[in-house]
Amino acid sequence: MAIGTQDDSDEMLSEINMIPFIDVMLVLLIIFIITVPVIKHAVSVDLPKASSERLLDKPENIRLVVDANGQYHWNDARIEDEQLPDRLSAAAAMEPQPELHIRGDRAVRYERVAELLSAAQRAGLRKIGFVTEPATQ
Q1: DSSP designation for 34
Q2: Distance from the CA of 101 to the CA of which of 73, 93, 130, 136 falls in 20 to 30 A?
Q3: Contact 129, 101 (CB under 8 A)
Q4: CB-based contacts of 79: which residues, under 8 Å, 6+ apart?
């Protein structure tokens, strides 16, 4: 849409056609309106909160330690692998259900901790947590 006379064919039009720019901007706006909610809700992550407070174990909490050799310790008492499922099932049957605090040595194989988590899940424990030392600064 040029403003001016049609008689001047030798002169160049110094007007920018804004219609294609507006079309592109509207398409981009529609794309962002559609994709932003999808991106925002696609991966919902509840990040953990670190605290320097010492976690006090309640008497009903179970401290399960996996030492560097891969051996299990139930409340500081050594147990065999065969005893673990029975103890976890007994803990899962308690009401209210105790929390399972897992303390894994950094040198232990991940497989041992994964076996422990799998056994706790099969037993029906719902409150499982990992205990770590706060990082030094």
Answers
A1: H
A2: 136
A3: yes
A4: 72, 73, 87
